[in-house]
Amino acid sequence: MTIIAAALVAAAAAVTAVALWPAPAGRAADATPAPAAEPAPSPSPSPTQAGYPADDATYDVAGLPATEVFSVIPGLPTDDDPFGDPTGLVAQASGDAAPVFAEPGGDPVAVLPREQRYGGTTVPVVERQEHWLKVLVAGRQGLPGSGDPSQAIGWVRAGDVAVTENAHRVDVDLAAGTIAISGAGEREAVAGPFAWGAAATPTAVGRSFIMLNETVAFDYTRGHPMVYLSVQSPTLAGFDGQDQATIAFHYHDAHEGAISNGCLRLGAEAIDRIAQLPLGTPVYVHGADA
Questions:
Q1: Averaged pLDDT, 262-268
Q2: Which domains does the chain have, with CATH numbers?
Q3: What share of the chain is helix, strand, coil (3-state, %, to 5)?
């Protein structure tokens, strides 16, 4: 689904934390280098397994929803291994869009566009087979209270996508109050402190990925980038009049402890560093009770 941006939403008051978006047509408006890093293993691309048989069928995908931030796609499964290791690979549609399957052997339930306004088109591969790739995708299977709002997944055919390497990952530890970036043989601590979701509006735990990185005109970001993730709030169906509740890394003057509506609020040095990471980078949030 193509979304045409309209005016940017005004900044929320002091507690704004779930990400806001420019209002789409037809909808209500609503890098600083880090310190010296310590050595860490760099993930190698996973070996290819035979797995499911090839599917060479041609599908009519014209009426299928896109895996994008506003989509609710009941046919998509949710992540069954939320702390599974990344493969070190990302995928992007080779053509205009790649069909997305709930499971190989069935009909597609969505499409992964090559380009769309709110990103989510470069996706991490969490399982690689000879003919199929299991990927994280944007959008939700359901809304809080009426479905599962967890990170959505899907399968794409290997021939429909281009695969490249991305060795980076981000680990957010709410219990320890730390954020670390791994990749290129190093593990680097991101400057703290930071804030996360309050008890009633928690930050989603498990893995997601960097979906979009852009600088927007919200007063509270003070000109720093918003780094939007593919996962949305586990308790909010929407936020500030919009029908999405996307979690993001962003700057905020108040950025310590469990105080946000779900977003990860960072200081200036930290958000500028996170914003340097490639799209599709996996992000792991470990819970406060982990």
A1: 97
A2: 169-286 (2.40.440.10)
A3: 5, 35, 60
